[in-house]
Amino acid sequence: MSSIPTGPVDRLSALLERFRVHAHLFHAGPLCGVTHFDAQEGRAFLHVLRRGEMVVTHRPRSGAPRRIKVTEPTLLLYPRPLEHQFHNAPAEGSDFVCATVDFEGGVRHPVVMSLPAVVVLPLRSVDGIEQTLALLFAETERVRCGQRLLADRLFEVLLLQVLRWLLDHPEHGAMTEGLIHGLAHPKLARALTAMHESPGAAWALGSMAQAAGMSRSAFAAEFKLHLGVTPADYLLRWRVSLAQSMLLAGSSIKLASEKLGYASAASFSRAFVLSVGQSPRAWLQDRQA
Q1: CATH number of the domain enclosing 31
Q2: Is residue 28 part of a domain?
Q3: Which of 17, 151, 262, 283 has a 20 to 30 A CA-CA distance from 70?
Q4: Banded pLDDT at 2 (limits 50, 70, 90)
């Protein structure tokens, strides 16, 4: 095991390098009357209202508030497929932009699993976001070479800034537990980041606690409190999520088991069944079908 870091840790890079995020601008300009956004499998949305007001509605029992009134420049992130409607959106100008967001792994993406149904974030809350928005809106005002590609990358930067902000404000959106809440904990973040960076290491409760700089008992209790699962369960889910992405990309079960620290393909398959309820081969066949 490498030495324990004592300075600040990068809590997001290892996650987003293994489960990438891709944004695609699809609207810039006015939206009149009522605009409906369907829920599509694997599809998230990121909307930015830079001026004006509007009302956002959701279906009952959707996990999101039935009605949200937006009265100031605001960003709305829908990390999972969720039908939503905008009412009386800006009728003029180009200060409203929308992008679809594809989280690699869909609802299995560790960040997606930890976020509420919708994140409503006033732009004034996020330091440094205005510079990104200025570039983004400038790209939507007139056609230039590479405009769409640059706008897509700026949306991805914007999403990263939002995630950074949520790590510093985990209470936003009533997030009382989950990965974001765990990464917001200074000590738990060290253990989580180490597991994300080295999923195939020989992790045990003692080595996780050592990475966090905590005793085994204190670490286990804090981990369960902030993430809602035990350290062993989280490690299993993290490894299986990585394995699923590897299998979909064409890796063999044997290679996945080796890279993720399992002694054999058989032990990996048992862990996979424990987490998913299917063998790796059966799960892959269902996904391909």
Answers
A1: 2.60.120
A2: yes
A3: 151
A4: very low
Residue 119 has what pLDDT?
92
pLDDT score at 3: 46
- Same domain, yes or no: 120 and 195: no
Same-domain pairing of 169 and 227: no
pLDDT of residue 90: 58
Regarding whether 49 and 145 lie in a shared domain, the answer is yes
Per DSSP, 174 falls in state G
> In which residue are the tokens 């997606």 written?
112
pTM, two decimals, is 0.85
| Per-residue pLDDT band at 109 (split at 50, 70, 90) | confident
The reply to whether 7 falls in a domain is no
* Domain that residue 149 falls in: 13-174
The pLDDT, as a whole number, for residue 287 is 84
Q: Do 195 and 82 share a domain, yes or no?
A: no
- Residues 49 and 71: their CA atoms lie apart, in Å, by 10
Sheet harboring 67-70: ordered strands across?
Answer: 34-37, 84-87, 54-57, 67-70
Q: Is 215 within the bounds of a domain?
A: yes
The β-bridge partners of 103 are 21
The C-alpha atoms of residue 281 and residue 52 are separated, in whole angstroms, by 51
pLDDT single digits (tens) 182-221: 999 999 999 999 999 999 999 999 999 999 999 999 999 9
Are 160 and 219 members of one domain? Answer: no
Beta-ladder partners of 226 = none
Is 1 contained in some domain? no
Which of 140, 174, 208 is a domain's end point?
Answer: 174
Interhelix angle for 129-141 vs 147-168, to 10°?
Answer: 160
Contact assessment for residue 108 and residue 15, using Cβ atoms and an 8 Å cutoff = no
* Alpha carbon distance 186, 75 (integer Å): 27
Helix (H, G, I), strand (E, B), or coil: what is residue 115? coil
- Assess contact for 124 and 73: CB atoms under 8 A: yes
Contact in structure between 214 and 186 (CB atoms under 8 Å): no
